[in-house]
Amino acid sequence: MLTTTIYKKNIHDLNNYEFKVLKPSTNKKLGKKVLKGKFKDYKFLTLTLVERETCPKDCFHWETCYGNNMPFAHRMDSKDEQLLKNRIYEDIKNLNGKKALIRLHILGDFFSISYVMFWDMILKDFPNIAIYGYTANNINSKYKDSRSIASTISFLTSIHKERFAIRFSNDLKNLFSANSFDVVKPKKGESILCPVQEDKTPNCGSCGLCWESTNRQIIFKTH
User: Fold this and answer.
1) Which listed residue, 18, 141, 158, 159, has the most CB atoms within 10 A of its CB?
2) What is the three-class DSSP state of 72?
3) What CA–CA distance (Å, rounded) separates 223 from 221?
4) What is the pLDDT of residues 71-106, one digit of tens each?
């Protein structure tokens, strides 16, 4: 069974990593900035961790993770003590108040309660920051750690509202979820196929449903 990325050479040692760990988006599907809604003109920043190492073991896409098709992605090691307060925090501080919507995580997932609470600190310290993304952690998981992390994510969402918009992957009972088309088909009024994947809008920045629509599930086709 795979336990980490298949591209181990692209796990970067932060002692020798001269670039920022929070990166401006260069992804065509994501876009460079938000074009509508509450976070209009916020620039997208992205964080990439190590897939599988940081993910709950019951993730539906454990073996088929789209990281398998991303050999060149720079993966940040979650075990590196520099990552959070020395690198991520400083990257955000150096924005000098410029507004950013951070996409967590291009690869990887929330790996501990303390890591989730790190983002609570970020949101409290930096009112110019908002966060969105997805997690395979689930309150119904058979793994205690995954249930605890999911509960903490829900708690932060209740505090920060749209500024911490993390959808739960394949939590079919939760309207604020992001589900695989392989798991569930769209239900009229309750869910919507990703408009970007359907070519109904150019990119996430021109859509905004994932962080602004709290009462509809988003359905994604497998990457």
Assistant:
1) 141
2) coil
3) 6
4) 999 999 999 999 999 999 999 999 999 999 999 999
What distances in angstroms separate CA 101 from CA 18, 62, 142, 167, one per listed residue?
Answer: 23, 27, 32, 15
Cβ atoms within 10 Å, residue 112: 14
161: left (phi over 0), alpha (psi -120 to 50) or beta: left
On the 0-12 / 13-18 / 19+ scale of CB atoms within 10 A, 7 is: middle
> 200, 28 in Cβ contact below 8 A?
no
How far, in Å, CA of 84 to CA of 65, rounded? 24
Q: Which residues contact 76 (CB under 8 A, 6 or more apart)?
A: 12, 14, 21, 47, 48, 49, 50, 83, 87
Q: Is the pTM of this model over 0.85?
A: yes
How far, in whole angstroms, is CA 67 from its chain's centroid? 14
Using DSSP, state whether 175 is helix, strand or coil. coil
Does 186 or 96 have the greater pLDDT score? 96
